[in-house]
Structures are given as structure tokens and as C-alpha cells.
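Name: Trehalase
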Amino acid sequence: MLLKNDIQALKYDKGTGELNNWLITETRFNPETLGKVEAVFSLGNGYMGLRSATEERYSKEVRGNFVAGTFNKFLGDKEVTELPNAADMTEMALTLNGETFQLTDGEILDFDRTLNLKDAELSRQIHWRSPSGDEYKLFFTRFVSLDNKHIIAQKVAITPLSRDLTLKLNSGINGQITNTGTQHFKEGVLRLYDQKIMKLEAHTTESNIDFAHFTRHEFTLENDTFTPKNTIFMDRRKIFTTFEPETIKKNETITIEKISGVYTSRDRDWENVDTALASFATVPNYDTLFQAHRKAWRTNIWEQYPIQIEGVDFDQLAIRFAVYHLTGMTPAHDNRMNIGAKGLSGEGYKGHAFWDTEIFVLPFFTTSNPKIARQLLEYRFLSIPGAVRKAAENNYEGAMFPWESAWLEDGEVTPVWGAADIITGEPTKIWSGFIEQHITADIAFAVWQYYQFTGDQDFMEKHGYELLFATAVFWQSRLEENSDHYEITGVVGPDEYKEHVDNNAFTNYMAHWNLEKAIHYYDLLLQENPALLEALSSKWDLRTNYRKWQEKSSKLYLPQPNSELVIPQDDTYLSKKIIDLTPYKEASQVGALFLEYNLDQVNDMQITKQADVMILLYLLENEFSPEVKQANWDYYEPKTLHDSSLSRATHSILASDLGDKELAYSMFEKASRIDLGQNMKSSDPGIHSASIGGIWQVVVNGFGGVRMLDGKLYLHPHLPEKWTALQFPIYWKGSRLLINVTKDTIKITNTSNNDVQLTLNGTEISILANTTFTNN
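Structure predicted for Trehalase:
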């Protein structure tokens, strides 16, 4: 039986005092909406991500533990590389006085599952009446350690309220977990060490990665630790122990700790399974681990990113939620890895990295933690060989980056077939991996943006210049000559509802930008570092390509605003059929349009999935006048369904630029509730990484007004009417600035030893080292 009379499934106001706006609470158990909370409440540290499935099993759960960078390909022509679902170590099956603990049975008298963002700990409090009428209180907690990246820690406390308790616990390591039916692991060694530590080894079928899983248990009754009677059993890819303690008296509390660890041969410090075991054997108990974990979050995360919003409690919670997941999804420990479109919170998009990283997530790290931003860009540099191979396979030159990326050397890993066509009943072909090519320019843009914010010359000399040149070599080979100009035909732009279009404005403008930046830095290196230029020239034939860049860039067709100042999204968009989109824009279900039309039909309508021309106006904003921006907003936003989670954040920022505070805030509200809101089916495959990054961009770039234009820092805040204050940090050229905006005052504290120049509300100012500038 489920709790009744709950209006909302999630609550946001449980926290008080020091925990105000730090807690997200599930108020009722619903076996039909497990996936949402599994993803939204997922725990992670960048090394691994753990979906928050409960200790007990349910039919519609999706258990998941994903270790970054451990991709594997199931054998078969139709399969692509994906992040394998590692063995589950969180299951703890409880039998209480002969009855299986299941919330679908009996009666839930009280229920509360809470994610504490501040401590990155998940807790669950339950008062349960069994089918026979016995009552129990159970308190579960768990975390994935930020201090020790290999560790998952769990604790459960059980108190019998009706009579003495005979308890049986079945717990261990389950390697029978799959990726929606696909088994990525070969059978490995199972073993019990010292009657205490269980081990399960596994080995990926194609990528040959060794996994070593360990777990151990500790029992405490009224502060006394003991070892209960137990029986171990092994099955195929599974090792479990059944524990049977002596009778627990009524109103006494038994506490069980389960500490688990996962190690892989991809770890930079991996030697073998024995060294992993030795490392795990020295891991302390739950409370000691938690204190170190808690300190790591407070020191490394919340003190590093002190973003404060005053005026709307939910908005403060939302930005903390964003930072929490940005931390958990990012493999900050290893530049051979990148951020998946679902982070490490689910199987969605198979763990692959998209343009989401460079355009939506990377700006957070570029301005807040440049060291991590550099590592994410180094991943792209290290994956140049795969990009070169993709270019060659398509008869192009240079580096053509994959739409979806996994292993550094993989090249393209986008699946070829997708969901069923509502009209034909056949699978829909996914064209993104073939013709959605703007990602190559997006990566170049992110390299340049990082350089402008950080001034990291070492990165540019080792990686950045080559990325800019290699991508420009691709674009010059990609352009198609048409009479006296060049075009880019047969592509998909950011609007994935328009396939095989010619001269998508975003793609053409970004390709042109990429070529122009390559020309600029070629000229710069010719004067300042000819030796480096010579080394890169010999690798990429830059002398020949430089001439091609100059000739082709000057003749590349760039769609211009028409008489109404509207930039054509592509050559035919403005001539397509217009239909009433009101019912689809108001639908609670994303993609409701495809219940009535197929993609071929939508391709012939003026319908846009997400920001396309709009994101062009955001990224290259100083190339377009305010009048052009307003005209394009007025034209395209009514035709945009925002069916991608990437869309509303961009629109919110542009609405701020256009002076519409109310609309900007409305778009922000909708964006911040994509994962965090009350739609209990929005996040089943995993959280929306790009949307999470977009929330931060709205707060800092939109409402905070932070921009970098032509290599200079600008600040022009647009505080929402409902907010009274906003505080956030950014790094600029190695200096850390703490910016505090209220209705009447802007304070900028320079915490570095260097002066900083910026333009504040149109006025150039200099903020001296270790001083605070105040603008009343």
C-alpha cells in the first residue's frame, strides 16, 4: 500500500538552518516512477556513477553502476561502443520475521527519501507495517566517496517495534547486471577472503578491461560489533552471503554497514587485482569514510563554487543541484575520458560524449575550474586520430570529430538506427553520425573560449593550436564550390528535426569562424613562434591549407538577414509549411509531435526542435545587431518546441539580452525543472547533462551577465525581479573574481595578486589586486 494524500512526489523545502535549500526529498514510494529518482538522486564522483536504486529489488527498477572510460562493444555489426553496467554491489535483501521487506507489500506508515546535496549522501527513512502486522523502522544511508574514488558506502539501521526480530540478510556482489540485456563481461574469479571480503572479478568482452569488485559487511547491535552466523554461496557472475544474526529484541536497533569498492585496469594506478584488494582491505568504516567524503565536498566543491541566490529558495536549490551533478558526472581524474550526455546516471546515449560537453558543460569549468576544463579539452586532442580516420572515411581531410565519442581512437560511435517511425513502422535512421558536422567547429570554439578566459599558453602550444588547425583543415575540405562561392550542403544543424539541409546557418557561420581563427593564429605563430608553426605545418600541410583557408573562407556563403531581419535557418526553412504548434508546445510529453507525424513530414514544416539560429546569436553575439536578434527571436521561438533539454537555457540567456526579464526567468524555471521538477518520467534514462550545464550558464552568463567578447571580459547583470542578490565566482586570466550583484549594487572582489580589466555595464574598469570594487 502506498502513502496517500501526497500532492507532490518531490519536495524541496525539507532543509532548515544550515541545510536550507540543500535537500531534495521524495515524499512517497511509487514503483511506477523508480527511474526518475534513480537518476536524479544518483551518486557519483566522476570516476563512477551509481543510480540510486533501492537496496531491495523491484520489477521496474534499473540498477546501474558506471565507471568512466570503460567502454566495451558487444560483438555484432549493429552494436556500438557503450559504457558497460558494472556489477551491482548495493543490493541488500532483508527478511524480517520470515517476511520479505518490500514496499509494494504491507503498509507504508511513513516514508522519506532525501538527497543531501551538501554532503552528497542519500538517506531513506521508513516506518513499515508488514503484511502480518509487524512494524519496523528502517533507516538507510549511502554515498559514493569523493575522497576515495573507488568506494561505495552503505548503512542500514533496523528497529523492530512490535516484537523481537529474527533477521536474515542476503547481500553481496551481482555481476549478472546487463545493459538492457547486453552482457559486456566475461565470467571472472569469485572468492571470499578471511571470511570477510567478497570479491568478483570481471573482464569486458571486447575492450579487455579488468574489473575487480569487493564488498564487506559489519554488524553492530546497541554499539557492540559482532559477526553473525553466515553462509556464502556463488553463482554465475554472482557472490552473496546470507547473514543470520541472533534475535534482536523489540525496540533495539541493529546496524549493518556495507562497504564496497570497484577498481579497473583503466585506473592510472592499477597494477593487478591483488593491489586492488590490498587497497580495499585498508578502507575504514562508514563514519570515517563519510567524514573524509564530506570534507572533500565542502572544501573542493562548495567552497570552490560558492554560488548564492537570494529571493527564490527553489532557484538556490536548482543551482546547487546543477553543481552537484556537474561534479558527479565529470571524470576530473583522467584526460582520457569525457562527459556523457547522461553523465554517469544511466544507460541513455550509451555514455557517449556529444557537443553537449563543449557548448553547454565546459563553460562552467572554463570559468570556475580551468584545470578540469583543460583536461576535458585534452580528451579531444587525444582523440584526433579517430577524428582523422572519420574524415578520411568520408573523403575529407583534417580532423572530423564524431557526433558521438567514446574511446579516444574509436571515431564515430553514433548508432545507425533509432526509434520506430510512427507512419512506416520501420526503425528511423539516425543521420547525426553521418551529417551533423557542426561539432567539429564547436570543439574549436571551446578551445578558443578556454584560451581567452585562461590565457593558458602552455595548453595552446601543446594542444590548442593543433586543434584549431586540424579542424580548419577539415572545413576547407568540406566546403563545396558553387559558381563564385562555397557552400555546405546535406547536413543536420542543431535543429535535428531538419535533415539533409543545405547551408544551415549555424553550421556555415561556425565553419567560417573556425577558418578565420585558424588564419589568425597561423599569422600570429608566424611572427611569434615560427618553430611551433613549422612543426605543425609539416604534420598538417599548413602552408597549402592556409592559402585554401583564405580563399574559401572569404567566399563561404553565410545566410544573411532578409528584409524582415530573419536569418534563414537553411536554404528552404522559410518556405516550408507552417502549422499550429500550440498543442505540442503545451504537451507534458517531450516529442508529442511524433505521435501524429514522422520525421520526414516534420522535415517539411517550419518546426524547430531546439535553439539553432538562436544559439548562433548567443555564441557569436557580437556579429549581430540587437534588431536582428529580436527579429529572429520573434520568428523562431514560436516555431521551437524545446523538445531538447538544451534549448530553454539558451533562450533564457537571449531573453535576458533582449531585456525581457519575465520571459528569461520563465525559461530558466522550465529549464531548471527538466530533471528537478515534478515530471516523474523525465529522467528515466539518466539526467540531462547539457541542461545541467545550461542552468549554470543561465545564472552566470544570463542573469549574471558574464561574457567574453573578442578576448575581453564583460559584465552586464540582468537580475530577475524575484531575486534580491546573486553571488558567483569566475576565473579570468588566472585571477579569481567573486561577483556579488544586488538590485542596487555590484561588488567585484579580486582575490588574486594581479589587476583585472573588464567592462562593467558599458564602462571599462580596472579592479586592483586583492581589492573589492563597488558600483552603486
